[in-house]
Amino acid sequence: MKFVKLTLVLIIVLFISGCWDRSELERQAYIVAIGLDQGRDKNVEVTYLIANPQGGGGPEVGTAQGEPPSEVITLEVPDIVAGLDLLNATVPREINFGHISTLIISEKFARGEQLIYNLDAAIRERQTGRKTFVIVSKEKASDFIRGNKPLLETRANKFYDFMRIRLKKIGIVGPAKLHYLLKRTESKDELFLAAYATVAKKEGKGKKQGYEDDYLPGEIPKKGGNPTQIIGSAVFKEGKMVGRLTGEETRLALLLRPHYKTASMIFTFPDPISKGYRVTMRLKKHRDSELKLDLSEDDPNIKTTISIVAHILAIVSGNNYTDNLQKQELLKKSIEDSLENKIKDLIDKTQKDFRGEPFLWVLEARKKFTTFSEYRNYNWIGRYPYAKVEVKVEVDLKGFGKQVTPTGHRID
Amino acid sequence: MIKESDGKIGIREFVSIIVFSIILKVADMTPNLLFKEGMTATWMMPLIMGGYILLPLLILLSLLNRYKSKGLIELIYSITGKYVGFIISFVLTIISLLGTAVNLRDQVDILNTLFFPKTPIIVLLIIITISCYLIAKRGLEALGRTCWLLLPIIIASFILLVALALGEVNLEYIYPIWGPGLSQLFKSSLLHISIFGELFLMTTFYPFVRDDKKYYRGTFYSLFIIITGMVLSFLLYITVFDYPTIQKIAFPFQALSLYVSIGYFIANVENLFLIFWFIGAIMRFSIYLYVTTAIFAYTIKIEEFELLILPVSIVTIPLALIPENSIVAMRIFWEDYILKFTWPFFILLPIFLWIVDYFKGRVNDEVC
Fold it and tell me: Under CATH, which number does the domain B11-358 receive?
């Protein structure tokens, strides 16, 4: 009797395995990245990057050697989700959105009004998450996805994931999650920094001298490798792209965020003694910045002090900034001045061009109000462009590598 | 030592039952209702609500203590008499039944929206109701023991979620500290105290708890666990999603489980939390079915009420199908029709009972 009961229970299990939502692993097509372009009228051109878990592998069991690692399909549809069934006109498998990790938006589309409404589709769908990495491409998103040819990774999703993790660590791209884009659009008081990228057509021709990080995508003097360049930020205000920041400006913007911490940013600074040379430093920020806001007057008063730990990595001018304490002091002063000037320019840019701040200072401002309506009535973003901002940078010279006096040190 | 079952439950089981019946509200649309009112200060609302219900709850418990071996419904009957008692008890039955149906519907809608989009709602509803019925049928003792066994697992899964979400937490999002303003906060907390209504309904089982003193202690332990759990969850939701955004998210718990990931490569962990949440939800609705049946049975004075669980379960299904979708279920049926009408009931009923009892006690002191 027990056996019969058990068998009956087990038979029931066969029927309740997912009800109508039963799905076979082999019949799924996983989309890993989505590109968005302006289509005709209110339509969008959506580019789906479909991963092929079998393709592109070596001669192991379970891989299909002849198949490419991914398939790229562009459709013109009213929104991202609307193309789900249409995709099946070409793809024989059920489309699965659960593994989308990257969203690529063309700059033209990002600057338009339509974008934020199209993201609604992306977030309403049950499987898509808010942790998606947002990239704005200079060219059409479909061209970007097709032009991206990673040489070290076979799988495109791995490339994007690794890039996101690595770029966030070194700060030339901000933490560009879809959640932040939505959150900052909804809060209205903050700017969002999306990753900015291009597939550079011309190699090796940088427009300007940007040293170690002061580039927009496509400007890096580089030869060989994957043509993709992801550096700097596309600045979003109220769900619309309003400007861009170079890699260096992005780093400074992140350093200005009171709670932002970084383990390593390689910066170069002009040598204070020998003109034309630069000193290479590794900057770390381990401590919260001090941030004081005074909102009692019409225009907010903002004072912030950023403390940075610096390590000397290279002194190509041969000046002795290591065991000569006066020169050390000189170098420190020049780094502080240099950073303060750059930050001043950046703040000017945010006040005049963007009329808003990506530094999350608004979170500090929120503490000054007791109720939400008071805070809303204050209109932070409306007042920020007129704010008086004072920034102080404090640099601690903590290390100089495993050499003391520079090689070829000029005797003073 | 193995004791023979006497049909009663101990303090552990009792606390687990109450905790299960209330705490899982943080994982349905209830936060969405509260964040609409409490804004950045929503995490304080459970504390305020706890303060509001403390006095009525104490009054009710002291009454129950006076009329020993009587549950809530029997107490109402013996204090207010046959007719008034019937009306009050009947209203309680309706509240309990509708609450069960509407919340069940919300739960099914979450499942349908996030995990089983192609499965018809009625199928999910029937499967869940059958599971709940099978558990509820085993009786209060079995319910209590199962809850006690599952409680650590549910708490552990919650702690795991907190640990995974910790990297996304920004405590600055709780400012402005008073949200909509203190008076508004107190007002909307009062309007939503029915979220804690199960605490009152559970007193139906007063005679089934082994010791009166333990009932007191158990009620306050569970209140403490529930409030702590709710405050922590709301804090977690607000500090991850921030205010205007959290209000737009229909199911914050599921959104959070979709947002976190274990390391860089295990990115989709929502199904892990689905299991725990679903087990908890099944327990919650089993308890609801059992309580509703018990209240109903005592109202119409039937002793052997466990046979009534099946009809009550069957009635729940069509009731749960009335709202067209979960917004209608939660915003209109639950919030506008049930929460906003029942809060005075839960506050005033104990006070009313106490006043009647006080004057009656004076008149015929000898009878008592």
Answer: 1.20.1740.10
